[in-house]
């Protein structure tokens, strides 16, 4: 760690310690603790969410908004548990898996998780690449390389301490939110329909059910479940149980704020598609390029440019977060790391090959989401197990009702992901 990094982190920790010592309240007291949840929130608004939400809104209008709300509530619960695990134990979820599971199991989990991280990176890279290609006309292959360089530069902010990287990624999340606030203005959704269908469940027919599964099953990403615990476990180290409780209370507030923002962005993606595409008879807008080409004549070039700007911010930020997660996964499961530039090159290689060979990016996105669905239950089930053990969590152990709710979420994710995989394989249920 460089002297500059130590100095920057010391200031951030000192600000947090000052709050803990004085027991300050209000938003100013929360500021030193903001960061980890906003980094994690990026995974909930990555390019994969764009494709799913746009397809749902164009085909079924406002009727599947309730699925976004449900998925977001599940995200709040799971990410809060991951953050709490790091605070309570001083270890990341992968580190606990390595300690508590046999060595062979940890190695298998590492390999599977690395594959999932690479699959995630494919979706994120393709999203940013498509945005650059459509927005400024850069060829796909060159856009892929530019995305790789930009994400590497963002990751280099870590040499100045955790705070600059958290602030930069948080700023990209806010930029995406601002873009969708503008899209809401452009698209003029029906407020009554948005409120009603956000609260009232509706499913009719296999295609609607498949999109329900897609929205929920692809919302919670395996890598970010691992990452969140890695962001909190040594950020502000508690000195006693009282500080653990205090840090967790601040963390809980941050999780609610960050996940609520991600949820609102996902809602706006879907109701924008419902208002603009479904409302004008464009019921089969299933890909990002089609969405862009359809959006331009309906709402104008400004709206389509805002859409692509948000997509580019989403792809770049989520790709950087995916690389961070890869480092946490490797360090935790097998106890070593590799230089960030090597991981950046290795994880972007499949995307470069896909683009160079001219493989359909939308089909690749679908396959990557299926792979993620197969891996997702592993970190969620591990998290529920560890968070329910008092000997591991101490004073922050999950209450019984939280364990029940988390277990139901885990069971729902498993069932829906199995359904998604079977449907993708052409096995009708």
Q: Tell me, what's the shape?
A: globular
Tell me the domain tally: 1
Mean pLDDT: 82
| Biggest sheet layout | none
CATH architecture: Up-down Bundle
- The portion of residues forming beta strands comes to under 5%
Proportion of residues in helical segments:
over 70%
Describe the structure.
This protein is mainly α. The protein is built from 20 helices and no strands. The protein has a single domain, classed as Amino acid/polyamine transporter I (Up-down Bundle). The mean pLDDT is 82.
Please supply descriptive tags for the structure shown above.
429 residues; Amino acid/polyamine transporter I; 79% helix; mainly alpha
Summarize the structure.
The chain has 429 residues and is mostly helical. The protein is 79% helix and 0% strand.
Topology diagram in text:
Layout (H helix, E strand, L loop, with lengths): L2 H20 L4 H4 L5 H6 L5 H14 L4 H25 L3 H8 L2 H34 L3 H16 L6 H26 L3 H9 L6 H12 L4 H11 L8 H36 L11 H12 L1 H34 L5 H17 L4 H15 L1 H11 L2 H4 L6 H25 L5
Helix pairs in contact: 4-11, 4-13, 5-10, 5-11, 5-12, 5-13, 5-18, 6-7, 6-15, 7-8, 7-15, 7-16, 7-17, 8-15, 8-16, 9-13, 9-15, 11-20, 12-15, 12-18, 14-15, 15-16, 18-20
